[in-house]
Amino acid sequence: MGIYPLRSVSRLILFNKPYGVLSQFTPEGRWQGLRDHLALPGMYAAGRLDADSEGLLILTDDGALQSRIADPKHKLPKIYWAQVEGTPDETVLEPLRHGVDLGDFVTQPAQVRCIAEPACLWTRNPPVRFRQAIPTNWIELIIKEGKNRQVRRMTAKVGFPTLRLIRAAIGEWTLDALQPGEWKELHV
After folding, report:
1. Relative orientation angle of helices 90-98 and 150-157, to the nearest 10 degrees
2. Which of 2, 42, 45, 169 is close enough to 174 for a disulfide, judged by CB 3.0 to 4.6 Å?
3. How many other C-beta atoms are found inside a 10 Å radius of the C-beta of residue 86?
4. Domain 11-72+172-187 is in which class?
5. Is 50 considered catalytic here?
6. From the first residue on, what is the mean pLDDT of each consecutive set of 10 residues in the chain (188 residues)?
7. What number does CATH give the domain 77-170?
């Protein structure tokens, strides 16, 4: 009977990714990399968040956990807050609840609702463009997939382009009170 080493506790980092930061450690062009904010060797992002999107990014040192978080087959819900141009109503949001054809794929049905501007919201640097004649509003979308620029493409498809996009939660993990560039470590 052999002796097998016990797996140490997995590290899990919840990071509030600021605008302008890539979901990789190496910077590219005008975008910063994660190493500009985190000095954590051996950690890997579990999923991606575009440089122009903000919010929750999870990093871990456990490949199996990384796969479980990032792989759509595990169907972890992701909550996004989108500031959109215009004033959507229930009629406009209904197609998002059934799935929309984005040309290269049809989205799975999303849970979506209009919300007030989130109370915990921080000021974005640089600020989003502002047009005095066009109001902006916030919607919350919950999806279980996460294809490239999916939320932005979904809101644009129904006529309400996203100006600002924040991921607030992935599964059971949330931003809580983390400010942009802040992180906290959990042991799982």
Report:
1. 130
2. 169
3. 15
4. alpha beta
5. yes
6. 60 96 92 91 91 96 88 86 95 95 94 95 85 89 90 96 96 94 90
7. 3.30.70.1560
